[in-house]
Amino acid sequence: MNYPRFAVAVSAIALSSGAWAQDTTTDSRRAELLRQRARIDAELEALTKPATTAAKPAGRSADRTADEGDIVVTGRALSLTTIVTGQTVTNVDDAAFRNTPATTIADIVKLSPGVAVTQGNGPRDVSVSVRGSNARNGFGARNIQVFEDDFPVTQPDGLARFDLTDPHAYGAVDVVRGPSSARYGNYALGGAVNFRTRRGRDIQGAEVGTDVGGDGYANVYATIGHAGPGYEYALFGSLVGADGATGHTGYRTGTINAYGTYALGDRDRVAAKVIYNEGEFRLSTRLSYNQYLANPYQQGCERAASAAPGCGTIAVLVNGVNGARIAQTAAEGDLARNDRRTIVGTRYEHDFDPNTIWRTQATFDSRVVNQPTSATPFKGTLDSYNVTSDVTHRGVVAGMDATLFGGLFYNYLDNQSFSFNKTPAGRNGFGAPTQTVFGDIRNYGARARAELKVTPELQFVVGVGYEHSLIDVRQTAYSYPVGASATLLLIPAERAFHNVAPEAAVSWQPVDRLRLHARVGTGYGIPQANSLFITPAGVFGNNIALKSQRNTGVDVGAEIELDRNLTAEITGYYEWFSNELVSQSAGVNLLAYTSNVPRSIHRGVELGLSWRPLGSMLPGLKLDASYSYNDHHYTDFAERLTAGAASLVFDRAGNAIPGVIPTFVNGRIGYDQPDGKLAGVGGFVEATYRDRYFIDNANLLAMPDYTLVNLNLHYDPPASTGWWSRISLFASVQNVFDTTYVGSASVISNTLNPATGVENPASLLSNTTGSIYAGQPRTVYAGIRTRF
Fold this sequence. Notes:
This protein is mainly beta. It has one domain (3-787): Maltoporin, Chain A. It is 8% helix and 52% strand. It has a 22-stranded antiparallel barrel. A hairpin with a 6-residue loop joins β16 (356-371) and β17. The longest helix has 24 residues, at 25-48.
């Protein structure tokens, strides 16, 4: 990674802020007045529509306009995630995380009910699970659609990554829960997440900050933003690094993130989005459960020959082609990732008339990866293109106020990827190729939606999406028999999928302080390209039997405001899944392949709470909590296991789906002094509980539950404090009691005893490597931020 260019970019932002300091006094005062007016407007709106703000953390909305005549916002078309009528949505704004370390996006999304977070594949990667989605995936995000400022950051193959973003750039996040393919298309089985960057109107100048912490953590970041008649922009840059508490897990990553809007006239508006990130990450190996118990943080693992007990290793070919292998630790092999991501998007809105808005959006997304992370390093360039065009009309249908929406979409991914054998030569030890995958993935279709207001209190929503998906990829597999010539096997895989996703919802507000909703929604996700290269017979070929996974779900929920000091949201859901994708054995001496689980059930309860227990007596005291319960199990699934000459089929009906965390709870009690000489002084104590969960289909091996406690103190003074209002400070202790816990556990396969044909017990599964990372031990952070 070329660090100087990131340092120059961040420094340029900081230096320019100094040049503006004298000239922005008026702008800063104006910005503060606008923020105050926005907060007043938000409170007035809450009084007229109280239930719509239930369970949202306190703080200004990141998407409000102080004055529509002063600041342009490209948001007149149907909202993507901010307001989704009839569906369960939680909006978390930056008041909940702006005075915290926010080292990863886990610190943001864990505040939403229905969301569970675990560590991903590396020190900064995060796995986000919405209602159990993404439970089987060890890295990135699948089975949810991810956006940033309404621009897609999930590529057409269904993968989004969370280790290439800096939470300091964000002003809010929206979490939409439940099957949502009618609105978001392919892979929206669990819903959608939209990260919204801070707006220029909330900055009106510049901010520069730095956070430092244990294990060499340091983050230097800066933001420039401004808004005025007809325009608004914000530019963020950061350079972040750490050494990591676990052996060989350091990283350095830089980010530039920009978003701006401009009014071309009274009827035309444009928005532009740019994200650039480059990172270098050192990775440790995933462990077996027994290795984790013996040496969770992989200390003393520099060399395999003298490694301490519990050190993980990989088997590396001595000549990089065939024959003898040697064991190497992560440090010896220098396992790493060097990834680069570039996203450029633009959006155009045109008003045909005051009630009809046409919106067209185009996004280019390039993911360049270099990943010597295992015994088979991976390189690739995955460039994608996404185009949408839609029309929103607000009018009257059959005497009812109506919002009508219709749109077309197209996206395309060009996959050029290579895998190799690893040699003992460290990070650059790329040996002979093992496979290449060339081809493309295309999705295109149409969506329609109607929101009908039967009465001021009662709304109906109907929607439908149709999508045609085409996977056209070619794998070339290389093999190198000892003493013989290399062989190549070409495996073409071309599959077409057609999916239709209807939805219907009702939203009813019988009284001012209560809103009820009920919904039936559907979701679908096509298989991954690499699942198509091995047939159910366990041989290389096109897996033509593989189907799209689908779910149909029912949500029933309520948003309640008992008084201005107590708001809550509660939702129950029940989802019927068909054809979930899993890997299983084809038989003796055959390859594992991807198959469909005929049927499974996902059900659960989600609760969010925001409470000021002493109201006007002590308004700075507040409790925020989220609770998620997931009961996911197979109802029809027969799994084959093979070992030696034995090959048996086991009935998994009734078993819990591995990787799904049954109960995830986050609670925070804090105090912020609202006025007086100590205005802006505050702090909180936060506890996060994660339930035990199984990591195998037979439900034999479970990861233990844990509770983490975090402590935070901060000073974020209001504008009335004068000069001091330009400075914010915080100190935080994460994992106060230094709990050792499983931060991440990939799903493992059950095994057979070849002599008896009996499944091996948990004691033997505990030796299965490639699964576990330890979580972060106690870490102290501190930060300072200045505004100009």
